[in-house]
Amino acid sequence: MTWKTLDDLDLSGKTVLTRVDINVPVEDGRVTDITRIERIVPTVTDILEKGGKPMLIAHFGRPKGRVVDALSLRPLVPALEEAFGRSVRFVETLEGAETPTQEARAADVLLLENIRFHPGEEANDREFAQRLAALGDAYCNDAFSAAHRAHASTEALAHLLPACAGRSMQAELEALEAALSTPERPVAAIVGGAKVSTKLDLLSNLIEKVDILVIGGAMANTFLAAQGLPVGRSLCEHDMTDTARAIAEKAAGAGCELILPRDVVVAEELREGAPAQTVRAEDCPEGAMILDAGPDSVFHVTQALDRAATLIWNGPLGAFETPPFDAATNAVAAHAAGLCRTGKLVAVAGGGDTVAALNQADAAATFTYISTAGGAFLEWMEGKTLPGVAALRG
């Protein structure tokens, strides 16, 4: 690990500009899901215990560089105070932060107003970043989910102050490094989702890094079609079959075992409880849609996981939101969770649909690490440099 953590900085008596992700759902002025707030508690607690004062910097929604009252961070103060067990003072303007009131100086934690109200934030404006830097003595980035954005509060600030990763960022980076950069082998990856076209970079990078690659979801239909198999009315990118064949050939050349569905669950419509049948992958009826992987496919995937030491998972194996087409995802997730529970597998998963699917399967809590970062997680898996992470290296 080449980035500093909170353990590497002296924070006593210092104001620590702390970039966090508290982009939480709010209804009628109240926070309805505190998951992201809970994730920053260890960082805030450690800064306070080290004698520092956290000044939280966060975005909320997409105000596009202007003040939008509905996107103010002020309603988050009660939820933050409850989570931290400390006083939190809201700072409405940068001028207010530059000349703090007596109440602000006395508060344990400060919360700046939505940083994206300022056009200099998303423009990664140097002068704006310098103005922010003048507010504190050190910088801590605890927002991995925003690390793929080169913004003033995620990238420029790290070059202007002593900088480190917060506890949530540190945990994410350590998990991803362990899964992809320095993994215990064999490494298996499960990649699902709707379209091959949206995951070309991911597939190309993983083929070079993993030993076993499982293709699931609707994107598997494109690979089946590339083999000349019928896919009926299934969601399929027929214009991407040449690309799918090229990916399969690249996998073979790299010694990466490619696993596609051997049998599939088909139905004439996608709705809960729709009549469905399981057929061999080569026997999809003309008027049917492939909506899930079948039990033989699940058996071969779980056998592959039994041989693996590390698993990376991004995307469900079927239309998991609509029973009975959640069966394959649930079964494989349960098997992976069991291997994690006994210490036989290190499993890292990420992406919105993936997290939802693993939660639905009651498997998420047993996985080694679950990333909620979305775009940043995907770009890391694609092998791309994340500006907010690169800025912390030293």
Structure description:
The structure is a single chain. By secondary structure, the protein is α/β, with parallel strands linked by helices. It folds into two domains: 6-168, Rossmann fold; 183-381, Rossmann fold (3-Layer(aba) Sandwich). It contains 15 helices and 17 strands. The strands form four sheets. It has a six-stranded parallel beta sheet with strand order 5-6-4-1-7-8. A six-stranded parallel beta sheet has the order 11-10-9-15-16-17, sandwiched between helices. A three-stranded antiparallel beta sheet has the order 13-12-14. Helix 8 (200-209) packs parallel to helix 10.
What structural class should be given to the helix and strand makeup?
alpha/beta
Q: Mind describing the biggest β-sheet?
A: 6 strands, parallel
Shape annotation: elongated
Average pLDDT figure? 94
Q: How many helical elements?
A: 15
C-alpha termini separation: 10 Å
CATH topology of the largest domain: Rossmann fold
CATH C-level class of the largest domain: Alpha Beta
- What name goes with the CATH superfamily of the largest domain? Phosphoglycerate kinase, N-terminal domain
Order of strands, widest sheet: 5-6-4-1-7-8
Task: Tell me the domain tally.
Answer: 2
Gyration radius, rounded: 23 Å
How many runs of DSSP E, i.e. beta strands? 17
- Poorly predicted regions: none
**What is the percentage of strand-forming residues?**
15-25%
- CATH architectural label of the largest domain: 3-Layer(aba) Sandwich
Helical content class: 25-40%
